[in-house]
Amino acid sequence: MPVPIRRLCVALTLCCALVAGATACGNSEKPSAKATAQVAALDAATPSPSTSAERQKFAKTRFVANAGLAAGATYQWIVKPWKAGKFKKGAKGRKLALVKAGLAGAFAYNRLKAAQKNAKGDPTLSKALAPLTAGIEALKNLPSKLRKGDENAAGSFDDIINKVKDAGQSAGAPVKDKVPSASQLSGG
């Protein structure tokens, strides 16, 4: 029985120390309005870690990353199977190709929307992507179009991706395809 009693004593000592420490650190007084105003003024005077020029640089970097993932997913799971004829009715592996294309389409749409949001941080990118907004929105319906046998749907997806790449290139942010991992594709 000596071991359980030692454990009990150690546990009791630790609990008392934690309770005493928490009680000693607590402050029952409410901060005054003057102290709160001083803290707020100090926070406002502290410079932000990134300037507007750095934010624009980061916007281009994030745009390139998001657009690259969208382009890679589109090429790997939509364009390649489309060119191989996997989406045609009666083609071997059509169902699996459609499921992968649906996931890739949703992922690419998500990344394109994120890239579009990133582009707003850079005036040149924002102007270059402005005409593509309607085209990006139209990509939401890709899975249903492919399921119905519309073979032009994959081509339109490829066209929008190429236009986004061209817009990035013209704004000084060249986009390269980056195929996402399966966990990225299924996790969003």
Descriptors:
single chain; mainly alpha; 188 residues; 9 helices
- Secondary-structure-derived class: mainly alpha
Beta-sheet strand percentage? under 5%
The pLDDT mean sits at 77
**How many β-strand runs?**
0
Number of helices: 9
* Integer-rounded radius of gyration: 27 Å
Helix content: over 70%
Task: Report the uncertain regions.
Answer: 41-50
**Alpha-carbon distance between the termini?**
55 Å
The description of the largest β-sheet is: none
Strand-and-helix sequence, N→C? HHHHHHHHH
Assign an overall shape.
flat
Write a compact overview of the structure shown.
The chain is mainly α. The protein has 9 helices and no strands.
Describe the fold and architecture.
- There is one protein chain.
- By secondary structure, the chain is mostly helical.
- The protein is built from nine helices and no strands.
- Helix 3 packs antiparallel against helix 4 and helix 3 (52-84) packs antiparallel against helix 8 (152-170).
- The protein is flat, with a radius of gyration of 27 Å.
- The N and C termini lie far apart (55 Å).
Secondary structure elements and pairings:
Elements: H1 2-25, H2 33-45, H3 52-84, H4 94-119, H5 123-129, H6 133-137, H7 142-147, H8 152-170, H9 182-187
Helix pairs in contact: 3-4, 3-8
